Amino acid sequence: MFAGYVALFCLIGGEIVVRVFYERFSNYNMEMWRYSSELKLPLERQALPFHHIPNKSGSYYGVDISTNSLGFRDAEYSIIKPENTRRIVMLGDSHTLGWGVAFDDLFSKILERQLNQTGNTHEVINLGTGNYNSTMEVELFKWKGLGLDPDMVILMYFINDTEPVPRRKSAIGCAVLKHSYFCSFLFDRLVRLRSRFIRGSGWSSYYRSLYSPENAPDRESNRESIRELIRLCDENHIDLLIANLPELRRLRPYPFTYATNYIRDLAEEGGVPFIDMLPALSIYESESLWISVEDSHANARAHAIIARQIHEEIKQEFPASLD
Length: 323
Prior knowledge:
This protein is an alpha/beta fold. The protein has a single domain (54-170, 199-322), classed as Rossmann fold, CATH 3.40.50.1110. It contains 13 helices and eleven strands. The strands form four sheets. The chain has a five-stranded parallel beta sheet, sandwiched between helices. It has a two-stranded antiparallel sheet with strand order 1-2. The radius of gyration is 20 Å and the shape is globular. The termini are far apart. Residues 170-176 have low confidence and may be disordered.
């Protein structure tokens, strides 16, 4: 009994300390946890266990993130597409969401401004959501993206998009993980210790494991989701572009060509235009493209480069879409 009281006292004390001194403890992992805790809600959907809370705002990793009535980090767009307007939806994870990047600097918003310089009206709607994989991105497109009547879909693929769909946690587990700053702090320290002392637990090894034979079922699920997206776009006469976002921590030489080849092969199989962002980004030093030393998400500079490359690809592959 006494040990239980001591443990409870330590948990409560730890929670108070971390909350009071959060600015000293906070880092990428903890801020990503806080974003998930405050800005997402669970869903009763097997292939889409969570999405953003609509009309919610917060500041995470030094940047404001606000959602519209559909739960997207974007301006408010009407469900019914305006006349004489071409609409593009972008699917992706935290890179497309624009983690750590101001709203106006997102590649979706830069692309929208670039397209509208032609004098025609384009809307580029950002469906990016942190911690999504390709399966979840396609499910979100079926749930909310198709109803926006897009003329084009751009799938922004990242190397970890073959991860399995997260499982729903128990109600008690969800409540603790959602609200406890101390548990977030402990988890962050555990991750750091594990990567430091356990061989093969780093990010490079983890990425490689996603494309190993042991991960074949999850990879096949990813493959079928992308094939479904290709079919949906074909059936609904929607242009589709697949773009590969490289892992920015090491660009020269790039160690993850197996992931690039995987998504390129899928695009070629479906007859879909494909663009690899690596050539345009690899002429820069990796560190100059990061949000911070501990966070290799694309910064505003990288977003501008990505937007420019997508714009050029659209002009080349879909010139009629600019008319």
